[in-house]
Amino acid sequence: RLAEDLDGSIWIATLGGGLSRYNSVANNFDTIYANPNNNAPYSNDIQTLFRDKDGFLWLGYVNAFSIFDPRTSVFQHYTSGSPGIPFFGLINDFT
Q: Which has fewest Cβ within 10 Å: 5, 21, 33, 81?
């Protein structure tokens, strides 16, 4: 899946390759890989990607989703089994 942020950057959700942003100046990709010790995607297997009207990117996984703010590079994760959060299953579309 692809999404364009409010600054015009193209973000790519991958299966096994994390979250990538196309760098048009260098003509390459900057990738953020899952890492439980750092601010990063919950998983490298991102099933879907969606940008909302406020510019946040929503990432869907199996049994979890994240909200990512590309302006601050901060992730917020929501996982099945957390207090008040039901079982999600596969999140593959936000529409």
A: 81
